[in-house]
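Customer escalation, tier 2.

The customer says the design service returned an amino acid string that "doesn't look like it belongs to this structure." They asked us to rerun it and document both sides in this ticket. The original structure tokens are below, unchanged.
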């Protein structure tokens, strides 16, 4: 492997076993933790969050490219969220067949009708990429998706660099160990939340993390909570149910939950249909959206992060509409797009169907879902498309070119999993934050990165889905 971890280390079983033990202890010492599946709501017994034994080589140029384009992606997401006509046109076909997106869109429309009660906007995004391997051995950065809702692992990834540094030292790779980059998204994410809280302007008001019923990944969030507490900003963790039972708006639409005024709602739950277990859950979402609290994300920013919007953005002329006088920004963003194709009814969608059926291995079929494990690959694309190709049901999906990163050997460390050398593919994320007040962009930053790695045997799935693990780039 070029400029990565030497094969003589990779293949030395005794050394690898020793390093794996060292690595797991380092993870525990660093606080790279997850609760265990058996007791997701207790911290009595916890384990290390899954991670790779070694860092993964990433070409420096593409790494820097991902960081450099992030503030433009922030601006783009924000502009989309303020363009109701664009959202309406982009999502019209999707919402006619996808109930979940339709329900979100209904909330969006109600908010537009009532008028937004808060002019402060807080965005915490993560744009994810894979490196497409060219025939000449080059690699180009291709966006997989942008997460505008509950983008995770900014906390834990702030602590993973020290694990790999330590492992490499023990492996005798001191030089490589010094090349592991610092990373601290937790601080940057907290800085943006703190800014929004400050602008909201009430010292008593709290930051509410809206969390899932099952909280295995709590430590990732605790890092951000702790950063806020360090700034004397009070935070609390509540579920949809708590908001439904104890939430209310006063005459100024200030949000109160459990007796506390809420300055910021940071959603870490609410992006999957399964999160909405009852009508009350939907009522709670609407209550928060209507309120004066700063929502991260607000409903229109949530919609801006859909895969359908991603596909529409790749159409000729669309980026130009959002950046009319900035051809360089357009070019910088567009350079990261993989091929994206509509499945709307009509000749263009028909062409997409024919193309996918002819060469399914070249594509990924994506419904409007988040959280891993929802996309469709290979022969299953044909099965699904054969079933829906004549009906409007096909409009619930988009088609995307499959990105082909170079597989790299590594060991995936996960509780109770056997230690074995694995062919791996990685996905690089860049964290972006912004705060806008009315017309004023008061903060727009790239605050760090995330590398996740999975076995090449799995086509899909993130860390929370139990497929990918945390990693660090080793710039080459
Ligand atoms: P989700 O919202 O579920 O995270 P993604 O679009 O990020 O949806 O896809 C989930 C996973 O599927 C990604 O992490 C990646 O491993 C894989 N994947 C998605 N799109 C592509 C693609 N175009 N090429 C290769 N792999 C992809
Ligand atoms: Mg993803």
């Amino acid at each position: 492997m070029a400029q990565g971890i030497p094969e003589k280390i990779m293949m030395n079983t005794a050394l690898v076993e020793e390093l794996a033990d060292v690595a797991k202890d380092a993870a525990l010492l660093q606080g790279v933790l997850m609760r265990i599946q058996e007791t997701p709501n207790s911290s009595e017994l916890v384990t290390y969050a899954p991670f790779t034994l070694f860092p993964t080589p990433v070409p420096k140029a593409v790494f820097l490219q991902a960081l450099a384009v992030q503030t433009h992606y922030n601006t783009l997401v924000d502009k989309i969220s303020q363009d109701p006509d664009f959202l309406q046109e982009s999502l019209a076909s999707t919402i006619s067949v996808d109930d979940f997106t339709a329900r979100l869109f209904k909330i969006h429309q109600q908010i537009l009708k009532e008028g937004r009660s808060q002019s402060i906007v807080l965005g915490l995004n993560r744009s994810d990429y894979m490196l497409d391997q060219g025939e000449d051995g080059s690699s180009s950065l291709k966006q997989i998706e942008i997460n505008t809702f509950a983008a995770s692992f900014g906390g834990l990834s702030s602590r993973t660099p020290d694990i790999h540094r330590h492992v490499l030292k023990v492996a005798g790779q001191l030089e490589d160990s010094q090349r592991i980059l610092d990373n601290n998204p937790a601080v940057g994410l907290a800085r943006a939340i703190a800014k929004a809280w400050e602008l909201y302007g009430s010292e008593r008001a709290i930051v509410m993390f809206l969390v899932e019923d099952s909280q295995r990944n709590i430590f990732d969030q605790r890092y951000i909570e702790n950063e806020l507490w360090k700034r004397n900003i009070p935070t609390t963790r509540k579920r949809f149910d708590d908001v439904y039972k104890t939430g209310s708006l006063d005459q100024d639409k200030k949000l109160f939950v459990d007796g506390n005024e809420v300055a910021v709602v940071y959603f870490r739950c609410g992006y999957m249909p399964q999160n909405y277990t009852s009508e009350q859950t939907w009522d709670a979402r609407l209550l928060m959206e209507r309120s004066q609290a700063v929502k991260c994300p607000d409903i229109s920013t949530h919609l801006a992060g859909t895969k359908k919007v991603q596909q529409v953005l790749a159409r000729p002329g669309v980026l130009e509409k959002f950046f009319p006088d900035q051809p360089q920004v357009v070019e910088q963003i567009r350079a990261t797009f993989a091929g994206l194709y509509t499945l709307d009814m009509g000749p263009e969608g028909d062409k997409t169907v024919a193309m996918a059926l002819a060469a399914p291995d070249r594509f990924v079929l994506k419904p409007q879902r988040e959280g891993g494990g929802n996309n469709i690959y290979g022969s299953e694309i044909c099965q699904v498309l054969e079933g829906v190709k004549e009906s409007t049901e096909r409009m619930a999906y988009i088609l995307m070119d499959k990105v082909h990163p170079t597989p790299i050997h590594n060991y995936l460390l996960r509780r109770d999993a056997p230690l074995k050398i694995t062919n791996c593919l990685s996905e690089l994320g860049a964290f972006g934050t912004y705060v806008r007040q009315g017309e004023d962009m008061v903060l727009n930053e790239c605050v760090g990165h995330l590398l996740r790695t999975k076995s090449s045997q799995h086509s899909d799935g993130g860390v929370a889905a139990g497929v990918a693990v945390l990693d660090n780039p080793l710039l080459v």
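Tier 2 assessment: The sequence is consistent with the input. The two ends are 12 Å apart (CA to CA). Residues 7-333+412-475 form one domain. Sent an explanation to the customer and offered a walkthrough call.
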